[in-house]
Amino acid sequence: MEKGKSSILWGILYIYFCLYILMYLVFIFVIDMVHVPLSVMSMFVVVMPFILLVIIQKFILHVSARRDKDKKQLFTVMMVALIPLIVCTVQLSVNKYTSNFNQDRWLNYEEKRVHMVDDLLQQHKLIGKSNEEIIKLLGALRKQAVWKRELLHYTILGMNVVSFL
Description:
mainly alpha, 2 domains, 7 helices, 76% helix, rod-shaped, disordered C terminus, membrane, transmembrane, transmembrane helix
């Protein structure tokens, strides 16, 4: 009977591991596309599949007759399973870093501005500031640049763009 339980649990582990890898590929894609930052909720979602994998492994060890051989196999599975977890955690951390407003990044990396807007609005009260203060913080619109694109960035922030032109 122990061998039957062990075989069923190994089958469950195999199926779950395939789903696990697929889940983390989806996580990596979604984190990149949506630019999800590091938070308690995002870490909870990323870590839960790994915790379930560990629980399944504990059940296998509990009913296993060949503990030493199974420990080695389960350790290998766990090490491989840690790779996508670490990738997702690093990806979330990088997103958190790039979401923080930084004047240097704002001025030099226009394509990253969209990620910094929320933090900018939370950290800097723009309403009531003079045009000079806003220009000092965000930089002036460049006449030779594709001004429609910059106009869009400033419009997103809700500023009076006409006064910049």
